[in-house]
């Protein structure tokens, strides 16, 4: 690890100021991606701005028909939250299936979303539920937020404060874990809210995406049977030692049916 | 049987310190004035090293040295040896160009050490390493085993990248057997490359004492005496009496810590140069890149059978990837530890094996849990199962028809099996596994949309690797016996100094059980001393499932001598004839009388030495034994694996696993079961999870746990374990090695089960969910269902 300056502000505003002043700063949330990268000397930020001292940034509450999850809410908190379990059980289940107990005790929703790892679970939930990423500057719909591999719409100095999820009528998540890392080799989040059907796929491609053919197929009836015969093209999918694009495409179909069945 | 003698389920005395943070591992040690070593490693699979400029690093405050292969050459240190000579078919000795400790002009795998930086802190050493520039001239990598013979030369001396072309068995007779066969089964098999993954990474702390002119090395070794011998006799670091090697608590080895590696060698050598203690601990990436890898065979295997399924002959042609250098025991693994087991449990009269050892620009490959025998078992047991399927014979029946029934049995491939009862083993396994009920279970699975399959593996292996003359005749550079010293203290407590080394096996428990059983003294009065060349007489260490059959036999022999001397002393103290002295339950008694002396009094008597003539009996009570057995031991067993495959995803669930083993006399059933459990876990890892993948440039793609799949608890069922016993006639305890059997027997059972489930033999290890799914796409079974 290279030397860096460490800051622990008590408000988002102070954090934003620190980000502005520092040369090459990084926000520290759970640190489960950033710190190992720094330890391997693959990242060398000049300053770490730790958000764990900001009070209330981990709040979880329902306002009207919307679930608000603070950016610093740990995966374990979301998984165990009765509020989440009641509002969107599939989201609680997803959080409870991220990584292992150590990861869940430290990792945060804000950190996961900002990192936009192509194999992470939360991006599928955000896109699959039509969430809004709230920052200190603006509100970004999930459809616009996830731009590419490890890329988001976040600008320099922008801090995610919370993620809001409209509460769906039905939602389900099915994950096929990478046998080594247990990240999603393919994960599909499907939801139905009024007429809006969403099917979001993580792990399969460089960035989370919506499977529009599947969404259309589910419009008539939100049931696994509606997805039979609906496949996705493997042209743009990842292919690596863990799975070929063809296998990933096949798994998207299987996981989508299982996600809908679970919803 | 006493509560904690032979056969008792004594809980492991060492575990308390291990699980409460009380262990003493190499990295726990701190020495005054210590410095840190950091190794610069090749980022290329194959390159010439044109120059190394360390001036920037050497200018940094706190940097003590930057040393390279040239510095080693100047001090005439190295090269790292290979300790087992193999001759090719044409009689020529194997080609093993030197394995420099640090690269000399060329690097041959990603991770090959090029230089070492020694600095006050690890952080500083790493920073300084970034200031060292190495001028590489990249060469064509040699990665693919099957095309390596025509690729760029890894070593100029080794034409066609071939270290040897070896054969075993009678080629013509085997050809004749195939010519007369009713049926021939042919399989193309690969035995996937594995990374050992001991939980404790390799580590070294080295110190030179100028006053005593003596080095001390603490390191993660399975055999500290062998490490010392290699360092002194072959690497020229220091004479043996000037080098102390200590292997304290070691967190797992699986073979990977048998060898002397560049890092500890450099630490010892450099500690004198910088006049400071030097420490090094591998990080996990270094472990993946540089711990000796395992397996990596490509094999064409054929079995010839008559119309009744009687095996007439077996033939293999194997390419063995040895990596960039021929490691310490690498030459023995794909030869005498492999082809000698190709007879399996079966009476096969004609066997012929050809093995070519091939250099590639990958991490060196060497012995890893099972070492050659898993590769042999995979060949034999895949052939058996596929032959049975092709001939329409029940796989258990086909095996039984071919079992060796009488012992000793001389196979056509060197081994003389001394004992076994393969029918007893398989019959017990069939019963535990409820083989008869499989059809019903398969139908129940089908109702749930799952494909159920069952697979067998009947293994036999040769372990307790010995005796010295036998292994010497096969090319071993060392003897393979074991030593023990039994020190009885004046108060009657006993210290056992063993040349074996425990790094997870539980010797502190099992060895003490033997002593308790023999001497009748309390368990807590026995301690096991090992792993320090200053304390313990020369010993050969622990690998090849040898600590029990060889190491404990040495203890047993030394105990015999102690008891004999005790009887002599007791005869004087009890004023009786020596022939009348009996020893049982910790008491020396005069036969037919009530005259007795207990163990503690006898021990004190031996040291006080008032009661016997010193001209006749020396004072004290301490005996040594160097035990060389008469043969390998041959544990055998039967694994039956039952799986359910999800045809939608190719995911395999292991539903049940039965393993019945014949380990001869068992010292501690709990520890033996633990060995079997761990062995099966590693076998399951090989069969469906683990694989070292290199890309075409020779970069290790599976260099961390993000990409290398270790077996985990949720991959495994609760094992059903059984044992049968035929006593081993080749050692005084009657025991057979148990440490590797699980890893040897298990992989084919799983592959046989999955291929049974999916109706396709086209499935390589590791049988990942994708490869199972792919195989299903072309399987007749799948097509029939649609």
Question: Which key features would you list for this structure?
Answer:
heterodimer; A: 263 residues; alpha+beta; Uridine Diphospho-n-acetylenolpyruvylglucosamine Reductase, domain 2; Uridine Diphospho-n-acetylenolpyruvylglucosamine Reductase, domain 3; Enolase-like, domain 1; four-stranded antiparallel beta sheet; 11 helices; 14 strands; globular; B: 786 residues; Aldehyde Oxidoreductase, domain 3; Aldehyde Oxidoreductase, domain 4; 3 domains; seven-stranded mixed beta sheet; five-stranded mixed beta sheet
Question: What would you say this structure looks like, in words?
Answer:
The complex is a heterodimer of chains A (263) and B (786). With 263 residues, chain A is of the alpha+beta class. Chain A folds into three domains: 49 residues, Uridine Diphospho-n-acetylenolpyruvylglucosamine Reductase, domain 2 (2-Layer Sandwich); 107 residues, Uridine Diphospho-n-acetylenolpyruvylglucosamine Reductase, domain 3 (2-Layer Sandwich), CATH 3.30.465.10; 93 residues, 2-Layer Sandwich (Enolase-like, domain 1). Chain A contains eleven helices and 14 strands. In chain A, a hairpin with a 2-residue loop joins strand 8 and strand 9. The longest helix of chain A has 18 residues. In chain B, helix 9 packs parallel to helix 18 and helix 15 crosses helix 16. Chain B contains 20 helices and 28 strands. Helices cover 28% and strands 23% of the residues of chain B. Chain B starts with 14 loop residues before the first helix and ends with a helix. Chain B is of the alpha+beta class and 786 residues long. In chain B, strands 3-5-1-12-9-10-11 form a seven-stranded mixed beta sheet, with helices on both faces. A five-stranded mixed beta sheet of chain B has the order 7-15-14-13-8, with helices on both faces. Chains A and B meet through helix 11 of A and helix 19 of B.
